[in-house]
Write a structure and sequence with these properties.
This is DUF4862 family protein. With about 375 residues, the protein is α/β, with parallel strands linked by helices. It is built from eleven helices and eight strands. About 35% of the residues lie in helices and about 10% in strands.
Amino acid sequence: MPNGAKPGLPPAVPDRQPRLNPATAGAGGAIRGCAPRTREKTAREREGATAMTTEHRDKPLRVVGAYAAQPDEAHERRAFLEEVLSLPGVDGLEISWGAPGWEQDAPLLADALGSDRPNNRGGRGGHVLTLIGAAATMAAKAPSVGLASPDPDGRERAIQLVASAREAALDYLTRGQRIVAVELQSFPTLAQADAGLGGEALERSLCEILSWDWGSVAVVLEHCDARTATLPWQKGLLPLDIEIQAVAAAAARSPTPTGMAVNWGRSAIEERDGAAPERHVHRLRSAGLLRGVMFSGATDRDGAYGMAWSDVHPPLREQMPDSVMDRLKVAATLAAAAGSGLLYDGVKVAVRPPQTTVKDRIAAIRGTLAALDGTSPLPLDPRAR
C-alpha cells in the first residue's frame, strides 16, 4: 500500500494515478478541461478490470446502507452485518468508504464479505461505495474542498479522494466482491451566486474522473439537498439541473458507465416535501441519467431524530410516525423509476435511541425493505422510537 497506508484506508495523497481510458482520449490523450493522468496499469488492476464484467439483470441490485443503523459497539457489528446480508432479497451493501470510523469498519466488512463466507454470492450480488462520509468530512475541515469547487486546489484534493476510492474498488474486486458503483457528491457548499461556477468545476472533475479506466464499475453522482434562497439546508450542494448538465456533458465524452442517484430523504429535505423525491426521479429519468434510488426517510417535526428535516435517515412512517416517507410514497417513487435502467436501489435507515438492540435495528431495515417489495412492515418496538 502507498505511503504506509493500511489496507482499505484512503491515503492522504495517492501516489499511483489512475490510467487514462484510451477510449476517452483525444489528440495527445487529453480531454477538454481535464489534465489526464497516465501510467501503466498494475497486475492487480488488470485482474480487477477482468473481474468487472457487465451482467444482465431483470431488476436492479438491492443494497442496504447498513452503516446508518449499525450498533455503536464494534463487537456487535459483525453479527449485525451477517443478519443484514442474510435478509431476503438483499444483494449487498452501500458502504461508506473512508468515512470517520472506517479504520474500525474496514476489517469487519472484509471479514463479513470474505469470499469464503456463506453470504458471498459468488459475483451474483454487488456493493456500492459511497464517498458521502469522507467527502463531507473533508469539506467540513476545508470548505473549499469538493468536486464542484471553483478553487483548483480544493477540487484537486477531492479528485485525489476519488482516485483512492477507485483503488479500494479494485481491492474489493481482487477479493471476489463485485462493486457496482462508486457514488460521488457535489461538495462543497457554495453561495447561490456561485452555483454556475460550481457546475463548471464539477464537469471538469467528472471529465477527468471518467477518463480513468473503471472497467464496468459505474461512477454515479448522488443528488443531495441543494442550497436555496428560501429554505434552510443540510448539505446545501448544487441544484439538480446544474448537476444534470455537468454529468451529461462529462458522460458524452466517456464510455465509462455513469449517471445519477436520488436519496429519498435528501430530496424531501431540499423541498420540505415528501413528493419531491418522485419529481427528482422523473427529472433524472427524462434526462436518461437515473442509475440509483436509495430510500432514507425525513421528518417534518422535531422529535427522537432531532430537528425537523434533518439528514438523519429515519425509517418509514408506518414504523416511526414522525417520518414523511410512507409505503405509498415509496411505491410512487419506485413506479417513477421503473424501466429506467436502474443499477441499484435500496434502503438506508437509522435507529433511535443509541441503545436499540440489534434485533430492532434489523427490524427497521426489514420494514423499509418490505415497502420496496409492496408488503406491510411491522411496527417497531416503541422503545426504538
